Amino acid sequence: xxxxxxxxxxxxxxxxxxxxxxxxxxxxxxxxxxxxxxxxxxxxxxxxxxxxxxxxxxxxxxxxxxxxxxxxxxxxxxxxxxxxxxxxxxxxxxxxxxxxxxxxxxxxxxxxxxxxxxxxxxxxxxxxxxxxxxxxxxxxxxxxxxxxxxxxxxxxxxxxxxxxxxxxxxxxxxxxxxxxxxxxxxxxxxxxxxxxxxxxxxxxxxxxxxxxxxxxxxxxxxxxxxxxxxxxxxxxxxxxxxxxxxxxxxxxxxxxxxxxxxxxxxxxxxxxxxx
Length: 275
Fold this sequence. Notes:
The protein is an alpha+beta fold. The chain has helices at 24-27, 46-59, 68-81, 114-119, 140-153, 195-206, 252-273, and strands at 8-11, 14-17, 30-39, 42-43, 86-96, 99-107, 121-127, 157-161, 166-170, 174-179, 182-185, 211-213, 216-217, 226-231, 235-242, 245-246. The protein contains 7 helices and 16 strands.
């Protein structure tokens, strides 16, 4: 299956047709990646994503294959020939036996439905740890195991549980627990801290919402009122069920976070376009 969803993609600064896309440039060797949401051809929180992408490349001690301005140009090139109302763009730097390639392409969109936002989604606990939580490096074995489990359980997301029985993050998201009008989320050093999470924490600070940075124990999730995930695609999405534990999806924090996040996202797109 071709991971490139659009008609075109960018390879080392050149526009290419989908038919020439080679998945081995993603899954062989070592790949560092970043995923951005684009709305009307404009990426959301572009600068934040580029800062994290640089950090990920530095963590694995690899060279940058394309600088921020070149990536900006590539995004405009791709969206200019294959415009989409809303889509995710994946940037990949692949290092394989002396060869290095920079790719930029559309991913098949998998956004939550309106019903899922209204009713919440199902989550499952999954015992696993990232090899290096601070960098976005593709781990195909872990991803395959998680996808298989999600399909078996008909669930939206897995909550990763480490060897100390602590819930750290989702397989593609960050996690917030709510109890007595306080948020609980993992410390930065234990997770890949997402761009959406960063702005949710800013919203908490701006609105005097207290946050405790500590992991929740897997066997104590029933002590919390609500749980939600944050990420590029789901943004802010509540769980109605984790394993067999039910949660409220109507906490006022959820609407506050979503409304304030949308304002910040729109501002970031204006900054990218220079308007």
